[in-house]
């Protein structure tokens, strides 16, 4: 009696999953081409010339306002490249936190300051050998990370996702780091 009910429930769930997974039809490519052409063809109206009635102070105030609006669009970090926001923890060379070779990374180098381990999903974006900068989003330890370049040379356990592990020399440093949100950015 219970088996037919389970089969029926599975059939309904799978059919609903198929309906939810259906994607809407995309517009014809000519629609997109025409929209791009129209956007590029339109030219903005020229800015009106400053009249003599405007005082020099008003002109300066408008220039400062434009400059501050333009500076809002500029990136705050001097580095450019791929970025990701991830969970960060720290580790040190102890067999309980690593495999049977605690001082050897996945790339075969020795652990040292500046080495980071990434989860396997992040390794697709930041492969081994990538130089990265790390920004602490909590704001607590920005001086510790400021201006430092790390290199991806290790990986984490397969169960970890969207995670970065920073190698530290001592267990107490690793415990003080704890777990926090960071932004990792590839350095070019």
List key phrases describing it:
188 residues; 20% strand; alpha/beta; 6 helices; Barwin-like endoglucanases; 6-stranded mixed β-barrel
Give a quick rundown of the structure:
This protein has a domain of 104 residues: Barwin-like endoglucanases, CATH 2.40.40. Helix content is 35%, strand content 20%.
Helical residue percent?
25-40%
Any low-confidence stretches, pLDDT <50, length ≥5?
19-24, 68-79
CATH topology of the domain at 83-186: Barwin-like endoglucanases
**Coarse structural class:** alpha/beta
CATH superfamily of the domain at 83-186: RlpA-like domain
What is the CA-atom radius of gyration, in angstroms?
A: 27 Å
What overall form do the CA principal axes indicate?
Answer: extended
User: What is the CATH first-level class name of the domain at 83-186?
Assistant: Mainly Beta
Protein name: 3D domain-containing protein
GO molecular function: hydrolase activity, hydrolyzing O-glycosyl compounds
Keywords: Signal
GO cellular component, one term: outer membrane
